[in-house]
Amino acid sequence: MHVSAAGLNDKEPNLSQSSQALCSETPLTARVNDALARSENLLKTLYEDHPNWVSAWADLHARVIAAKETRPIALKLRDEALSGTVPSALRPGRPAYCTYIDRFGGNIAGAVTHLDYLKSLNVGIVHPLPLLKPREGDSDGGFAVADYRDVDPRLGSLDDLSKFAEAVHDRDMALIIDMVCNHTAREHRWAQAMLAGDPYFADFYHVIQTSAEFESWEAHLQDVFPETAPGNFTFIPEAKGWVWTTFYPFQWDLNYANPRVFVEMLDCLLFLANIGVDGFRLDSTPFLWKQPGTACRNRPETHLIIQAMRILINAVAPQTILLAEAIESQEAVLPFFGVPEAPECDLAYNNSVMTALWGAIADQSTDLLAQTLNAAATKPDHGQWLNYVRCHDDIIWLALSDLASHDRLKGWSDFFAGKDSSFAKGMTFQAPPGFPASGCGMAASLCGGHNDPMMPQRLLLMYGVTYAQEGIPLLYMGDEIALENDYGFLDDPDRRDEIRWLHRPSMDWQKAEKRHDVQSTEAIIFKGLSEYARILNGLAFDVGQVVKPSSDPAILILRRPLVTGETFVCTANFSDKPRPVSITGRILTGQAHVPETNQIAPYGLIWTLEPATISPAP
Length: 618
Ligand code: GLC
Description:
618 residues; alpha/beta; 8-stranded parallel barrel; globular; binds alpha-D-glucopyranose
């Protein structure tokens, strides 16, 4: 499929009879009408009194219909084929794989050549980190987008992106890309038009005129990058005021109180959905709505915006997957799924469990992990957690501040920075004053690195518990071959203050070849993760998970019901010593179990299947 910048098909595929039928379908289907009516109600709550509302609504209406009409036939056929089924990309045991295109394959065309490697890991979702056109120079790893309708020219073109999506689909996988919806680069056309005095863009960003006003906002805000980008505002002389910049000074927060911002962002999402991507990681979702006198995070208005986005995207591209990037407390993240009558995102990062997972291996105690896992099970059935061990960002210990004491979190922060004879080889990253510094490092390094004989066991434990949970496991690039930290950023003056580059190495394809050498660490990890995926793939899970109390704090016992009435049980030892356990049922994986003594090895993991008659589903 060839795609022009306008998102239209220049060349249609050969049409079968059913596609002919779809072609002749009237564009204004009941689905679109219904979506427009429902979203109008929601958006009126936010915007009815805004002077731009009437024209913005008319504009939005026209753009949604245009997007529906111009959706390529091949994608409409795919929508039809997937309709009414759980997308196979979201089936149990199919991990999402997160990577940087340049670091994985050089460019998009290069990344395509490695898709079969991902298939061998049973990957269901491919998530390349930002690939849209960023600003020149420092772009916060691509999160300062200069054009949502173009691809980073170093990575390829829109046509390459479309071909990438096709290649992903050919392998029965789905493609999710980043949509940085909270802010644009200051170089973005909208920002430049605002500076140039274009009245349409006058109110696209938050420009604060007086220092008294910005100080009254600041009194309630927390810095995200207190060291490299202190404060939430940047004085921009051309704007004659302080522009809201939650992240870096070159990332300008959009003003969602202006309905035109919603219209333009939605239009970009529809444009990209029509290029062929299957979903969006909605970056920095908690920050969309600003309300005086509040921390300006997780506002109810933000949830209305996401609900309306969901409805309208679904009207055009019904199978679109939305992933919430909200690295907040569990209580604040859960609402990003929405409720069954008003769904928001299909997926959300399970950051509380991820953080508690690292805490458990540091403390050799699973109390907080058990608590967060049980709370995670309260999510609505229509949403799924994206369970992970590591990602491209830091581990934000403060996200657990409502559950763990400062001293405990500080202890973890120190532990993973390698203090006090800990096995971990990580570094710390900035956190707001009074909070423990966040953690950086590749999973293999945080688990001790290649010189530590226990590293493979620890890494397989962390991933084993992650794969075992209800939801989609996320594999962060290179973890499958235990790639370690990359200290190269320290020699680069533009990056050396951004410690997160420590865990953004280039994929080492030579090292990846070692996965065929059965004795190597790479093979042990790769085989272990493939095995987890294979086992889960063969099980028919029902909803729910529960962590059963264990008399030994180092032991985690996670149970999940199967539709057959059997129970899947994951028993994990977070201690560096063997521990007695009571294992019943059929062992699915877990050479770590020593049957003679009924012990589980240090950092051991055992998955079993208990028959319905012995242990009814929880
Ligand atoms: C998200 C990204 C992070 C980025 C920030 C600002 O949190 O994951 O890498 O720095 O948004 O866009």
